[in-house]
Automatic annotation (TrEMBL), chains A, B:
<comment type="function">
    <text>Broad specificity carboxypetidase that releases amino acids sequentially from the C-terminus, including neutral, aromatic, polar and basic residues.</text>
</comment>
<dbReference type="GO" id="GO:0006508">
    <property type="term" value="P:proteolysis"/>
</dbReference>
<keyword id="KW-0479">Metal-binding</keyword>
<keyword id="KW-0862">Zinc</keyword>
<keyword id="KW-0645">Protease</keyword>
<dbReference type="InterPro" id="IPR001333">
    <property type="entry name" value="Peptidase_M32_Taq"/>
</dbReference>
<protein>
    <recommendedName>
        <fullName>Metal-dependent carboxypeptidase</fullName>
        <ecNumber>3.4.17.19</ecNumber>
    </recommendedName>
</protein>
<dbReference type="GO" id="GO:0008270">
    <property type="term" value="F:zinc ion binding"/>
</dbReference>
<keyword id="KW-0482">Metalloprotease</keyword>
<feature type="active site" description="Proton donor/acceptor">
    <location>
        <position position="268"/>
    </location>
</feature>
<comment type="similarity">
    <text>Belongs to the peptidase M32 family.</text>
</comment>
<feature type="binding site">
    <location>
        <position position="267"/>
    </location>
    <ligand>
        <name>Zn(2+)</name>
    </ligand>
</feature>
<feature type="binding site">
    <location>
        <position position="271"/>
    </location>
    <ligand>
        <name>Zn(2+)</name>
    </ligand>
</feature>
<keyword id="KW-0121">Carboxypeptidase</keyword>
<dbReference type="Pfam" id="PF02074">
    <property type="entry name" value="Peptidase_M32"/>
</dbReference>
<keyword id="KW-0378">Hydrolase</keyword>
<dbReference type="GO" id="GO:0004181">
    <property type="term" value="F:metallocarboxypeptidase activity"/>
</dbReference>
Length: 503, 503
């Protein structure tokens, strides 16, 4: 058969998988935004049927044949670039799945689903011992899988590669170390500062309806396309892509703390802008997706922190906010409002942490995961080690497992190697920002005017459009001319927080 | 292989198809309730992929093998009743599709989709000639298909069988004739009555929000389970089943005419009650569905007309309505309100017709379809024939094609034989009502109290629970001890309208 003919068949095959993925995404969205609860059990079966189908297709003999026929120099002469990269992606997936004995994979999947419900209960009861045997088995499985998959340099690299391809322990150790060396003393100086912001006015009643209106307004400024998306309410906010013409976001509202919805919406909006602006040429391939968890997070954090927590952004938007709020800000100056929403304080829970202390939460997890998969520590010792690290980095120590080792869902799903992406995204974001202001010299002015479209466009043309056509470090280098570099984030944090706390 | 083993495999296979159908239903619902418009093109591809998959499975060699192995006396000895009926259903579908040459089927599907968009434009322009060539081809195709499928007695029977299995032209001619003989003179007498109801107060402003609250209240009285459903807004209202634990309804609101939402919601609610109460044992099989279009319509019409347009129902609910409305009913007596919502007047548009004249609209379509497929008339003559029949039955004549022959979407999709089910449903509903009051002697009292649960339960235990386990006429006979019988509907209409118009 000619390469072109096989290419067409391969693309059709992949498109079918992607179409199934879209149906799955809609079911996921629907279950979280209002599907009637009595339909959930049967719905889970539908999700099971479709995911199994996609998994089977990704590891089928047909897929193997496509790889065998197209993954060679001769074929690459005639294949389109999109096909070559799609094939690369499918091959990686195929090999990853194919190396694991089927029976072990099934056991692992069953363990995952069981472990998640045990974790939920254990967290409710703040009882790590209850969850421990499951976590031990999950770690054991993943270690065995690393054995099958192989590794380079450090065993943990194989896990990192699933979320942040190309980034290694060596690189992360370096940037996380630099960050920690600067943030830890900065956090200490802040806690000793006599110049703490007043935050009392933040917690007054602000109706959900009015918060929603403000959020919609902010999304519009960000150039989120409402003809290609919608905003709904869920317990855990998320952004989800059905296709680039349908990228939905959700948020949650706390009527006693508007920050939850406002910064949450801007954050998810940043994720959504990425996916709305991936090139349409990539639709129907696995390349029509963010290139890594870290680059994705760089987009949400860019908007949440570098835009949403920037003083310039509030020059216009503080007045907008006042129009929607019920008078709580009437006697509060912009400067005091700005300081209040940027209050920094060591705390126990990652998802509630401020932008300065957040990376330290990630480092705690990274250090523990890395040690775990290099057999330097054991699961049973995790709670104490966690608490020790929290004390060392943040100066606070959890009283119980719910506020410590059990707080995150990730491990219960066997997701090890994911956490670093959160902090990497932050580092990337600062690097992107640094590159952006060289080209958009009036960045601050645009924020003050609420004219964010040029910023969105810069991100789209430099990052979004490529989807998975470029690897994370390739994008980083193309945009910034640098590799991973923590300096820009450090400079940003120091300048900002020294000013706010007048250090 | 043992029958039991094949049975299990067969049920698994069918379940997979049904799971795909659920995903399709969700996509359908989502596209109508708020999917972002820029995602629609790609969404259509997903729908195409999944429907093709289901169609292929229903006509596959695997399906043929199941039928060959299980469709015999020996196998039926050991198969469950559900399996036997599922197999019957699958076989019917298999044979129907298998008899049509693949290339003709594809041409027909392409024609359908083209014809629907041409019809839309033709209707806008009120130009039958524009639509005529498409309608001619659609009729030609269906005639050819009847040739492949074969027929008994009358060619039109084969079309009827797709929507109302077991019901024939002979039966319909009889009941429709009886109905027409009674309704046509009754409609004439009404139009001459000097005692017309005053309806002016119906058309005052009634906010969407308050209408929705009333509708939710009515659904709750009907025993619609909100943990297994939800109410949304769409341009064209519908009820849709994802699974019996998730049966959603939609409605539309006209702030100048609350009747649209109120009677529309009760109507769709009636459909939904059917599907919410199908036995859980049938989930995952094609039997978990209404047994025919007519029986389905009997449920919606029962609630809309025999409950919703009943004076008893408004004894309590008129006061409820007044609480939500903005004062428009303050000076209107219950009796006058009741007469107003039951105003009967010949009109041109089927979907806007009242309950008395509605069956006449159906008969016009039935007569024309029957004549068409028996080669007694030609497509080109339809507009004039339509107008003549409207004049004969209803005493009104359309000025143009948009208000006549082009008003319904059905034919543009090649759906011939569907219309009779609307009127059959009405006849069934009256028969069910007649049987019900023999067992629920205090029917009127329950309506007056708004205690509708016993009514819903009676319908569920006599009709809903069986899904497709019983054929329409089998249900009818089991519940009423009769075959198709128009007398009950005739008695109901005569008594009701003679009273309202004091004839």
């Amino acid at each position: 058969m000619s390469f072109q003919k096989t290419e067409q068949e391969f693309l059709q095959y992949v498109k079918k998988m992607m179409n199934y993925e879209e149906a799955l995404a809609l079911m996921f969205w629907d279950m979280r935004t209002g599907a009637p609860k009595k339909g959930i059990d049967q719905r889970s079966e539908v999700i099971g049927t479709l995911s199994t189908e996609v998994f089977n297709m990704s590891t089928s003999d047909t897929m193997k044949q496509f790889i065998d026929e197209l993954d060679n120099e001769e074929a690459r002469q005639v294949l389109s670039e999109i096909t070559v990269k799609t094939l690369e992606d499918c091959k990686k997936e195929y090999e990853r799945n194919e190396k694991i004995p089927e029976v072990e994979y099934k056991e692992f999947v069953m363990l995952q689903s069981k472990a998640e419900s045990v974790w939920e209960e254990a967290k409710d009861k703040s009882d790590f011992e209850m969850f421990r045997p499951y976590l031990e088995k999950l770690v054991e499985f993943k270690k065995k899988f690393i054995g099958y998959w192989g590794y380079e340099g450090n065993k943990y690299n194989t896990l990192l590669d699933m979320y942040e391809p190309g980034v290694t322990v060596e690189q992360i150790d370096k940037v996380f170390g630099q960050l920690r060396d600067e943030i830890v003393p900065l956090v200490e100086r802040i806690s000793k500062s006599s110049n703490q912001p007043n935050t009392s006015f933040l917690f007054e009643h602000f109706t959900q309806e009015k918060q929603r209106e403000f959020c919609l307004n902010a999304l519009e400024q960000m150039d989120y396309d409402f003809e290609a998306g919608r905003l709904d309410v869920t317990v855990h906010p998320f952004a989800i892509t059905l296709n680039p013409g349908d990228v939905r976001i959700t948020t949650k509202y706390d009527e006693q703390d508007f920050r939850t919805a406002v910064f949450g919406t801007i954050h998810e909006g940043g994720h959504a802008l990425y996916e709305q602006n991936i090139s349409k040429d990539l639709v129907g391939t696995p390349l029509c997706d963010g290139t890594s968890m870290g680059i994705h997070e760089s987009q949400s954090l860019f908007w949440e922190n570098f835009v949403g927590r920037n003083k310039g952004f509030w020059k216009k938007n503080y007045n907008v906010l006042k129009q929607y709020a019920g008078g709580q800000f009437d006697k509060v100056e912009l400067e005091d409002y700005y300081r209040a929403i940027n209050e920094s304080k060591p705390s126990l829970i990652r998802i509630e942490a401020d932008e300065l202390t957040y990376p330290l939460h990630i480092m705690v997890r990274y250090e523990l995961e890395k040690a775990l998969f290099n057999d330097e520590i054991e699961v049973k010792d995790l709670p104490t080690l966690w608490n020790d690290k929290m004390e060392e980095y943040l100066g606070v120590r959890p009283d119980n497992d719910a506020q410590g080792i059990l707080q995150d869902v990730h491990w219960s799903g066997g997701d090890f190697g994911y956490f670093p992406s959160y902090a990497l995204g932050y580092i990337y974001a600062a690097q992107f920002k640094n590159a952006m202001v060289k080209e958009i010299a009036n960045f601050d002015e645009l924020l003050e005017l609420g004219e964010l479209q040029p910023i969105r466009e810069w991100l789209s043309s430099n990052i979004h459009q490529y989807g998975k056509m470029k690897k994370p470090l390739e994008i980083l280098n193309d945009v910034t001319g640098e590799g991973l570099n923590a300096e820009h984030l450090i400079t940003y944090l120091k300048e900002k927080y020294e000013a706010i706390y007048q250090l």
